[in-house]
Write a structure and sequence with these properties.
By secondary structure, the protein is mainly α. It has 10 helices and no strands. Helix 1 runs antiparallel to helix 2 (about 35-50).
Length: about 220
């Protein structure tokens, strides 16, 4: 019989997959514009980062299962032809997960907080995600859609995977960032922001992926 934690992970992965499928249907039926679809896809993919939270896997869970299931059901029952209602329910569910599950776990783990440098790196990783999103959106607005390039999509997926594992190690202090690593990441952020076309963004993304991967210990988790 699956544990409460395994059941939760399964439920949330199912939510993520069904949401991506629903978003694709909205796009195919031209019920949502490209910019809104891009933002929604990023929000849905952010759930994957939450699912990789070291705290979610490392600690025991205590949450209102009925309230969570109620939010999941409300999302699944959102009208098929109204993207706004669907996105509103997804945002509520995502916030509920963070408020009811992740935040309490973070508070309980305060005694085992990341080192000062690791916390700084976690902050830089948030900044680079923002820089990536803003640069991608700027290129889309300039009729240079990087998501039309399969290589870019592969880079984006790889970064999401690397990011989840790297953040886990930083939070658990199983890797140690330092001043040089922080400065390198700051340069990476500037590099991403300076990308004025898709080839430059792809080149920057590859450098970022190579660097983040190099910071992850060689383990079965990384090689999986």
């Amino acid at each position: 019989m699956p544990s409460q934690k395994e059941t939760l992970i399964h439920q949330l992965r199912d939510v993520q997959l069904s949401c991506l499928a629903r978003l694709k249907t909205f796009q195919n039926n031209q019920l949502i514009n490209d910019q809104a679809a891009t933002d929604a896809k990023q929000q849905i993919e952010d759930l994957e980062v939450d699912l990789h939270s070291a705290l979610l896997w490392a600690d025991e869970l205590s949450y209102d299962e009925h309230q969570l299931l109620q939010a999941i059901v409300a999302l699944k029952l959102a009208p098929e032809g109204t993207p706004d209602a669907f996105l509103e329910h997804f945002s509520k569910l995502q916030q509920l997960i963070r408020d009811m599950i992740l935040t309490p776990l973070q508070e309980r783990a305060a005694q085992a907080a990341p080192s000062q440098w690791n916390q700084k790196m976690l902050d830089e990783l948030l900044k680079i995600r923002r820089a990536l999103r803003e640069t991608k959106n700027a290129l889309i607005a300039a009729d240079q859609d990087p998501t039309a390039d399969p290589e870019f999509l592969e880079q984006e997926a790889a970064f999401t995977a690397f990011l989840a594992v790297y953040r886990k190690h930083l939070r658990e202090n199983t890797v140690q960032a330092d001043e040089n690593a922080i400065k390198t990441m700051e340069l990476m952020i500037g590099l991403i922001k300076a990308a004025t076309d898709v080839p430059k963004l792809k080149a920057s993304y590859q450098m970022l992926n190579d660097y983040v991967e190099s910071q992850i210990p060689v383990t079965e988790e990384k090689d999986a």
